[in-house]
Design the sequence.
């Protein structure tokens, strides 16, 4: 139980993110099957079966996620409030979860291979899945304008599912279509549906933003506002890729565009999942409109972000608190309480000492120099004039060594805690593991850059990891209140995340697009530029 | 599955799992907007009305208010049923002078559980 409490906040976002993703895939698949595949003129029995198979898998995964969420939340509620089970079962989230679980299993039953009847019956459980999700959204707990907010949330989620959830089915359809012309027709029809979905999604999103964010100052002054702005930026990125797709399906012979269409679709799915994960982290934050006090002002952001010389002098280990984690726990226990709210298991926050801030800034600035060097060398390598520059991934070794030495200063080799003792601390162990992961990244990408791996999926490790890192930077959220320091740190992490997502997917497209596609060259210049910019942002990272 | 493909999948899964574990925990979204008694305030006893207002609708039946007394004991407060949807109210009676902490845990209507504490001092009336 204690372990569950510790990871409860994290589990909530994980389950929410997974639920939104699988819900989009299940509902998007149903809409694609009924409105895109079934209305085609050609025989599409094989394609229908493939769609049904993936809808069934998504619905099953959705049911598993819903069951996990209801069980975890019920257990926490029962234990933390010493509540009888009967009372727990009457909670709104249990009812919402049950509706979602029953609807998901209904989809599983209706999509079994033996059935050959119409698919319109699937629309009812699809609507129930959306309703179940809306029941645990912000809109349900609002005091004012509850009914319209519930309606807009339902429209927003349904449109997201139709567009982003339908994309994987478009890729399946392109792969399985009996003729290139049929695939092009499906692509064109999906583009029209996607356009309508985007219009609904954007309109509902705009209205929800008015209600939940409320003002321009709240956009940059609160965590919620900043995350909404991030979602909008990623949405624009998706629209750009969607526009490229839209152009593709309307010109040229079908055979030459399908490969490009598939690759753009892959990137759209990846960025789409990133947007959904960002939305999951939004559901865990209080709406900006509710937090009128302690917002970060434009002047404070400008003061923190304005360029200054990097810090190349580090405080000594002796300047830091003896045991950072113990100090944090102690600060909470002695009652440094505020009006902050917590999820069960979450600990309080302690302000870092100036030495800790300087230590962290020094870390970020050196990491920035290494990453900026990698980006610039990659740009030179892409230009094709300096073959030695292709060894840029080796700089990751420097980053790994830096992480190993500086992420846990109280441990070996810098601090008094011995190497073997660090293996017992999961947090330190994870930092060490991350340093190893960076080495793996260096080896994979160095082999790709130097031609040792000319083809195959190993080439995709680097872009996949960079894109996943960016998505995860967006998935975590910070305090429930408006802790200014945390928000200012978050505001510097958001550009890092967006640049990482852009770098990952542009490199992916460079590797995957067919050579005749001109966009490939642009992508080949874009990702090193993004990596160099990540270095610049890191170089200007400030904690004071 | 081909060995190369299997290795690739294993690596990506490994990386994703690792990255998930380094993500900081996120929090739910019911936040306390105002309270009686206010945070770190002094109120005169022995009877202290308690009222907490949140930013969202609260499931009062599944929320809890507990008073941590100066002697270390804990006293569950009965939550009033006659309040607004965003408010929890109760009455703490017979309080001796000393430092108290009001511990609250709420279930928001959207299923999020949040908790917090309000330290306050009771002075003799």
Sequence:
């Amino acid at each position: 139980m204690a372990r569950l409490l510790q990871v409860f906040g994290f589990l909530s976002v994980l389950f929410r993110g997974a639920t939104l993703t699988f819900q989009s895939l299940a509902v998007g698949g149903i809409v694609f099957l009924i409105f895109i595949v079934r209305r085609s003129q050609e025989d599409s029995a094989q394609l229908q079966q493939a769609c049904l198979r993936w809808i069934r898998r998504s619905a099953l995964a959705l049911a598993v996620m819903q069951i996990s969420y209801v069980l975890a939340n019920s257990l926490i509620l029962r234990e933390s409030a010493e509540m009888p089970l009967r009372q727990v079962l009457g909670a709104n989230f249990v009812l919402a979860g049950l509706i979602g679980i029953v609807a998901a299993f209904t989809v599983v039953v209706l999509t079994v291979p033996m059935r050959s009847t119409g698919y319109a019956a699937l629309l009812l459980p699809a609507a129930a899945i959306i309703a179940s999700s809306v029941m645990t959204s912000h809109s349900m707990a609002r005091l004012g304008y509850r009914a319209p907010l519930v309606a807009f949330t339902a429209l927003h989620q349904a449109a997201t599912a139709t567009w982003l959830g339908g994309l994987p089915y478009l890729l399946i359809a392109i792969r399985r279509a009996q003729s290139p012309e049929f695939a092009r027709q499906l692509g064109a029809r999906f583009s029209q549906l996607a356009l309508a979905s985007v219009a609904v999604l954007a309109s509902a999103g705009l209205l929800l933003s008015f209600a939940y964010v409320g003002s321009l100052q709240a956009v940059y002054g609160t965590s919620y506002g900043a995350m909404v702005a991030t979602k909008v930026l990623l949405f624009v990125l998706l629209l750009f890729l969607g526009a490229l797709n839209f152009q593709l399906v309307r010109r040229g012979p079908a055979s030459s565009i399908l490969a490009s269409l598939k690759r753009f679709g892959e990137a759209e799915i990846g960025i789409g999942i990133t947007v959904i994960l960002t939305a999951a982290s939004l559901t865990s934050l209080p709406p900006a409109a509710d937090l009128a006090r302690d917002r970060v002002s434009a002047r404070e952001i400008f003061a923190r972000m304005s360029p200054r010389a990097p810090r190349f002098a580090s405080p000594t280990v002796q300047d830091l608190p003896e045991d950072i984690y113990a100090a944090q726990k102690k600060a909470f226990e002695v009652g440094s309480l505020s009006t902050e709210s917590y999820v069960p298991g979450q600990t309080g926050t302690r302000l870092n000492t100036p030495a800790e801030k300087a230590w962290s800034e020094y870390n970020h600035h050196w990491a920035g120099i290494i990453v900026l060097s990698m980006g610039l060398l990659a740009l030179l390598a892409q230009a094709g004039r300096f073959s030695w520059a292709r060894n840029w991934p080796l700089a990751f070794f420097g980053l790994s060594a830096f992480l190993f030495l500086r992420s846990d200063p109280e441990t070996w080799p810098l601090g008094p805690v011995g190497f073997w003792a660090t293996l017992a601390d999961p947090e330190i162990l994870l930092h060490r593991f991350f340093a190893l992961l960076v080495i793996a990244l260096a080896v994979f990408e160095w082999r790709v850059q130097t031609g040792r791996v000319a083809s195959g999926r190993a080439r995709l490790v680097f872009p996949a990891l960079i894109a996943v890192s960016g998505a995860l930077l967006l998935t975590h959220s910070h305090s429930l209140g408006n802790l200014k320091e945390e928000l200012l740190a978050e505001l510097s992490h958001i550009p890092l995340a967006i640049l990482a997502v852009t770098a990952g997917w542009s490199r992916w497209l460079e590797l995957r697009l067919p050579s005749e596609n001109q966009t490939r060259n642009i992508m080949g210049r874009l990702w090193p530029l993004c990596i160099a910019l990540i270095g610049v942002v890191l170089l200007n990272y400030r904690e004071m | 599955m081909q060995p190369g493909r299997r290795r690739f999948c294993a690596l990506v899964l490994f990386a994703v799992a690792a990255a998930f574990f380094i993500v900081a925990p996120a929090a739910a979204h019911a936040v306390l907007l105002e309270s009686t008694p206010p945070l770190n305030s002094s109120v005169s006893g022995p009877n202290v009305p308690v009222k907490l207002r949140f930013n969202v609708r609260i499931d009062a039946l599944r929320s809890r208010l507990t008073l941590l007394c100066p002697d270390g004991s804990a006293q569950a407060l009965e939550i009033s049923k006659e309040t607004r949807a965003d408010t929890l109210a109760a009455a703490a009676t017979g309080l001796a002078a000393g430092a108290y902490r009001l511990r609250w845990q709420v279930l928001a209507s959207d299923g999020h559980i949040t908790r917090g504490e309000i330290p306050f001092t009771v002075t003799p009336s």
Notes: Chain B touches chain A through 50 residues (CB under 8 Å). The beta strands of chain B are 32-36, 41-44, 48-54, 64-68, 74-77, 87-92, 98-107, 113-123.
